[in-house]
Design goal:
- It is a single chain.
- The termini are far apart.
- The radius of gyration is 34 Å and the shape is elongated.
- The chain is built from 20 helices and nine strands.
- It is of the alpha/beta class.
- It has two domains: 18-262, Ribokinase (UDP-N-acetylmuramoyl-L-alanine:D-glutamate ligase); 288-528, Heme Oxygenase, Chain A, CATH 1.20.910.
- Strand 7 and strand 8 form a beta hairpin.
- It binds adenosine-5'-diphosphate and ligand LCLJCK34.
- One of its GO terms (biological process) is thiamine biosynthetic process.
- GO terms for molecular function: ATP binding; hydroxymethylpyrimidine kinase activity; phosphomethylpyrimidine kinase activity.
- It catalyses: 4-amino-2-methyl-5-(phosphooxymethyl)pyrimidine + ATP = 4-amino-2-methyl-5-(diphosphooxymethyl)pyrimidine + ADP; 4-amino-5-hydroxymethyl-2-methylpyrimidine + ATP = 4-amino-2-methyl-5-(phosphooxymethyl)pyrimidine + ADP + H(+).
Length: 529
Amino acid sequence: MTYDTLTTPFQGRPDHPRVLSIAGSDPSGGAGIQADIKAISAHGGYAMTVITALTAQNTQGVRSVHIPPVDFLMQQLEALSEDIAIDSVKIGMLANAEVIRAVGDWLEETRPAVVVLDPVMVASSGDSLISGEAREALLELLAHTHLVTPNLPELAVLVSEPEARTWEEALHQGKILAAARNVQVLVKGGHLASDVCPDALIAPDGSLVEFTAARVDTANTHGTGCTLSAAVATLQAQTGEWSASVGKAKAWLTQALQASGELNVGQGRGPLNHFHALWATAAPQGGEFSASLWAEISGQRAAIFELDFIKELLAGTLPREHFGYYLVQDALYLGAYSRVLAHASALAPTEEEQRFWAQGAQNCLAVELELHKVWLSKNPHKHLMGPVTKHYVDHLAAAAFSGSYGEVVAAVLPCYWLYAEVGRVLHAQFVAAEKEIFDGVGTVALDAVGSGREGAHPYGEWLATYADEEFAEATRTAVEIADAAARRGSERERQRMRAAFAHSAQFEVDFFDAPRLHADSTPHRVARD
Ligand SMILES: Nc1ncnc2c1ncn2[C@@H]1O[C@H](COP(=O)(O)OP(=O)(O)O)[C@@H](O)[C@H]1O
Ligand SMILES: Cc1ncc(COP(=O)(O)OP(=O)(O)O)c(N)n1
């Protein structure tokens, strides 16, 4: 059988290809099956394994090799191919000719869309991993292979020449093998004595694409060949383009070598850090997530304090109609917000959080009632839900009813956090301003401000309710809950939380600005209301 060596037949490109590694086990986890599982998983593939040999090895060398019966190897291969669609196959250590032929028979039968063969013969420690008679069988296996990835000693064995000492010699040998066996060859320059590590993808017609990376100064090179070939096998199933797959795999491998020092495995040639990218985006610690959310809405925070509504509320010059509109919208908002908090309570993963949101929902209704009884009864304003309020509660409802728990928490958080912040700042400024007025007159209880004193601040009673310590405490708890949800969630979940939080923060700004917009757009109605 001859494979089309240049393209992989198109069968749809899976995001999570089912990739089978047929290879030997390295109990130290840096090479063989174990490295393959890590490389496949790091690229989003679903890893499957059929173990051809068990080695007793560590980072310092191979002590012995055990080869299970070939009959059992075949049973494993058949069990997989009879049940599972295999998108890609990576082949590593095949310890003898019998094993190689058995794998060849299975490939001929199943014809996987992608077959990458790492012709493992010698480990980086210098130990031989294959018997002499197996060379011929390996060459025959190339007929069932799309890409073969020899290192320089392996390439030399395959073309029966001395090991290449220069990159030019290596390329020459690669071209001989590619043409003779009608197979793509990835010649790897890791064994060269140079400060760069060039690789080259050579087609049977001799055309080639080179990939060069700086040599990483590290002893942790155990399993580079296994890792690279498994990554290419996975990427090829996703991209269908060999040079793109090799390029991506090589760039990732270089980073895995650079990050290998983060691990501390063994006293010899240590393993690469296969999950360097994943671990770099690992779950945020402590309050990191909420701190980043807060920083991301610095623009909205500044914008709130620049609003006429806020400045006029503090100065006492806010038109009554604006304040009345705000109170009505606040009451309408709180009714809807309470339902969303009740939904957060229903989704909460712990009883404590369930109780917290349920209490929040109840408090909203109590505050809403208070607004009607105390504030709106004195200043009756008849308003329907305004557009900003409507958009804000629609956004919250969407997060509550179609988002995850983390998204609901992130969506409701700005109402707590920004209100607490605005309250804290306004209360402090109000108290300071009132103190200045009263200092000349004598001691006056500040919470009596606005209660009948001539020339008193028209919103004094309202401003005096800000900076409630109980609400500040609830805000701290809501922030901690958001951090915990972010730690539990995936990166994608955290992105959705960020978006939900940022949207709500913008709605908070718009909410404070809505009375002015409402007055500007409907001056007659405002006057009548
Ligand atoms: N120190 C290093 N720095 C950067 N890349 C390396 C280093 N050592 C090996 N590589 C790369 O690792 C891959 C495997 O190379 P090689 O060591 O030649 O094969 P093998 O691991 O099969 O012996 C190649 O892409 C090679 O360029
Ligand atoms: C079980 C097993 N398979 C393969 C190897 C050699 O792996 P390779 O990736 O070629 O690694 P280095 O030569 O870079 O170590 C192995 N040691 N064990």
